Amino acid sequence: MAGENNPKWNGGIALTSRTERENFMSTTEYKSWRRDVFSRDEFKCQFPLCFSKSNKLEVHHVLVYEKYPQYRLVLKNGITVCKADHQKVKGREEKFEKQLLLSTSNR
C-alpha cells in the first residue's frame, strides 16, 4: 500500500519535515560561525556571574534569531553559554539583550 492507500498517509506532507531554522543550523556557514563563537569565548560560559563547571555548552544568538536575520552569522551576535544559563535566557532574550551585548563587546 502506497500513497493515499496507506493508512499512514497524511496528504503528502512529511511528518518529520525540518523547519527553516533547522535547515539553517545544518549549513556549513552556521557551523563555522558556531565554532568561531566557541573559539573566541575559549569554550567557557560567558553568562555574567556563571560559576557552572558544566561542559555542556551552547551558542546563543544575542539579538533574537527570528527578529534579526541579518545578524545570524555576525560573530558579535553569538555568545557561548552553558546549558543551564541558556535555559534562563530562552524566551526572555530581550530582557538579557543589553547584558549579553556588553559581554560580547569586550571581545
Report on this structure.
By secondary structure, this protein is of the alpha+beta class. Helices cover 36% and strands 9% of the residues. It is built from four helices and two strands; from the N terminus they run ααββαα. The protein has helices at residues 20-24, 28-40, 83-89, 93-105; strands at 57-61, 78-82. Strands 1-2 form a two-stranded antiparallel sheet. The N and C termini lie far apart (59 Å). 17% of the residues are buried. The mean pLDDT is 85.
Which strand order does the major sheet show? 1-2
Pattern of helices and strands: HHEEHH
Main β-sheet description: 2 strands, antiparallel
Task: Give the helix level as a range of percent.
Answer: 25-40%
Strand content: 5-15%
List the uncertain runs: none
Please tell me what the overall shape is.
elongated
**Radius of gyration over C-alpha positions, nearest whole angstrom:** 18 Å
Average pLDDT across residues? 85
* Protein structure class: alpha+beta
Number of helices: 4
Q: Tell me the span between the first and last alpha carbons.
A: 59 Å
Number of strands: 2
